[in-house]
Automatic annotation (TrEMBL), chains A, B:
Its cofactor is FAD. PROSITE patterns: FAD_PCMH (PS51387). InterPro entries: FAD-bd_oxidored_4_C, FAD-bd_PCMH, FAD-bd_PCMH-like_sf, FAD-bd_PCMH_sub2, FAD-linked_Oxase-like_C, FAD-linked_OxidoTrans_Type4, Oxid_FAD_bind_N, Vanillyl_alc_oxidase_C-sub2. Residues 35-214 form the FAD-binding PCMH-type domain. One of its GO terms (molecular function) is (S)-2-hydroxy-acid oxidase activity. It comes from Nonomuraea soli. Its EC number is 1.1.3.15. This is Glycolate oxidase.
Amino acid sequence: MPFRAALAAALPPHRIVDDPDVIAAYSNDQAAWAPAGKAALLVRPADAEEVRRVVELCFVHRVPVVARGAGTGLSGGANAVDECVVLSLEGMNRVLEIDTAEQLAVVQPGVVNDDLRAAVAEHGLWYPPDPASSPWSTLGGNAATNAGGVCCLKYGVTRDYVLGLQVVTGEGKLVRLGRRTRKGVAGYDLTALMIGSEGTLGVITELTVRLLPLPRKPHTIVGAFGSLVAAGEAVAEVARRGLTPDALELVDRYCLQAVDEWKNMGLADLGDVLLLARSSTEEAAIQDAFDAAGAVFSTYSTDEEEAEALFAARRLAYPALERLGPVLTEDVCVPRALVPEMLARIERHGQAHGVHVANIAHAGDGNLHPLIIAEDPAKAQIVFDLIIDDCLDLGGTVTGEHGVGLLKMRGMHTELGQDVLAMHRAVKAALDPAGILNPGKVI
Amino acid sequence: MPFRAALAAALPPHRIVDDPDVIAAYSNDQAAWAPAGKAALLVRPADAEEVRRVVELCFVHRVPVVARGAGTGLSGGANAVDECVVLSLEGMNRVLEIDTAEQLAVVQPGVVNDDLRAAVAEHGLWYPPDPASSPWSTLGGNAATNAGGVCCLKYGVTRDYVLGLQVVTGEGKLVRLGRRTRKGVAGYDLTALMIGSEGTLGVITELTVRLLPLPRKPHTIVGAFGSLVAAGEAVAEVARRGLTPDALELVDRYCLQAVDEWKNMGLADLGDVLLLARSSTEEAAIQDAFDAAGAVFSTYSTDEEEAEALFAARRLAYPALERLGPVLTEDVCVPRALVPEMLARIERHGQAHGVHVANIAHAGDGNLHPLIIAEDPAKAQIVFDLIIDDCLDLGGTVTGEHGVGLLKMRGMHTELGQDVLAMHRAVKAALDPAGILNPGKVI
């Protein structure tokens, strides 16, 4: 039986979408700069068994399969490849279980990050990883990309919260990896191997995630600085003093102005570059570090509304800039003490090539997101590549949290080197012997 | 050139040990019950390049290589296999770097856990994973087994602290995995894959570990209970109330008496079963949960000396019991709410088969260590296997922190199932194509 007919026989008919317009809408993520292929079909499975059947048929017929959640990725990892099946998991969106004693939740991959937070908050629990896309992005996508966020500085990234996965393998087998218990070392950590593998080693059909008790609201510390590099110095000073804020975010003038133009918040009046920190215990010490590094203004408050507004502005920075035109989003991570040096280099590259570069950053992690305003795509690409080279030069990594996808393949190859890439290829071949899972991504 | 001659040509002569008595002393870990093969040679490399040369020659000549640290493992993971090279990494014991701003340390694999703690404490920093073997066990061994400990309840296990590794692959290549930055998603998480793989996927030659600021001393909460199951109920009650102690340990009468006999501490006068908890914020609430579950005595104190003595007793329990004869050490992990049920089953199995079972436990994690006093090895093995079956029946895992090694292979096979085992074998073949790395362990 040909593939299309076999698929029709294996699934209820309304699961399969042939409409080219709908397929096209599901064929790329938010990385405007990454190329997308022309998918053959869109499939919207309703449960893990349907996912298994699709992948098994793709394995038998050697058809590529690209899994996706909400498509909020920024590296092209979920972009279609030619003649593939796009497998949209957004319909599998049920929270299956919240276990308050064990502090875990079991969810389908299409559950939206903020929906899980809201569900567990009713039980006094908290799921920490909070990518800026949390109102839209799904847990499956968060796990596939090992998403980070604002809270990661203190609380860690997605990988730190996934205890176990149900996965469909490259040969169409439905398996359980990991565990429900707090600890466990039975066998290789294939759960961690799947996290961040961007759908190239398996398709996630269920997640068991660890939860924490809802923390008390921390204080918010604000510092305004006269330049990017001054703000970077404050980040390095916080690190040098051994301070550990829960979050430490940077937003520059471009971003503040873009948010102001959209939401009329008057943020740019505060200063050229803002640092926003959260802490329950070190607010005075963090303010002191900001001041020592040359803050033109600093304060801290427990006014929740004011604090929420500032962090909301941080979240709005990316969509606000996107309103103004195509944005090429960088995502590099450097040692924290080198944040000022990296910010200085980014600024120089922008100036040298006549390209506007806005900056938001999970600065406390050393995770910078230069946003390259792409008036001239060729120039933007040059600056993008120079930033990658510089982050490697400073001992950093080419992607802190957005993933490799298509945009960071060159950088990752340089970072890892041939021997480690060969290990990646061997692992990929071991778990996806037919090479059908999101081919051409990551490696 | 034959293997022995090639090895002699590749290393300074005193690195290679042929003395059968010395080789025998390096041919097993602390799992008295696990069989050990007869090694051909012991090699004590001085640096990563020497490790690389040894493994490369083993690859070319198809000679098995078993890497080991201090040999404190409890599952036979470091036991020699016939005709192997035992590769002792204990001589590679230098702390290479402590970076206070980035809060990380770079160490050789033979650095002893407590030595790293002492070195970083001078900088106000802390390496949390604290297996009971911390005065002797090495960071390389801790990583190879993904060691846990008392602090893991709040602070996580070894895997949560290893940012990057230098590893010699199964083909004798020296590679770097992971990163120095706080975050990073460039490629598959091969670092996590190596952690807990017990030397079957690579030989660790350097570790970059994340550090935390030294925390303030917490309070110690003590509860004494009339039975194992009552203490287990208190653990479940702590979980049900959403309390999050830093540590929550259980020590039963057998262990208390064994420590008393050795160190004359008078612990058994406190009660039949002790729970020891640590917390900086919830000491009254934890004591209340202990009382509600029927504690016959409870208190909390900040008397550091008294608290240290109690936790020292917990650490001494295993060596104290070992003094009295061979001990078959279990290591299972169950959901926390099922700790009383699991403890009741363990007690019943011991009684039914006329075998003494002592219990220590990282109870707050659900990680139990029944210690089977092996008067009759055959009976002890029956109880060992029954406990494994029960932990799986309760949704647990057959090894919480000691690793699979030799003792847990049967249990792990049951836990994982054929399809997941096939994934393990594929990954093993991908990264160790000649099958020379610690063959016959884990899978």
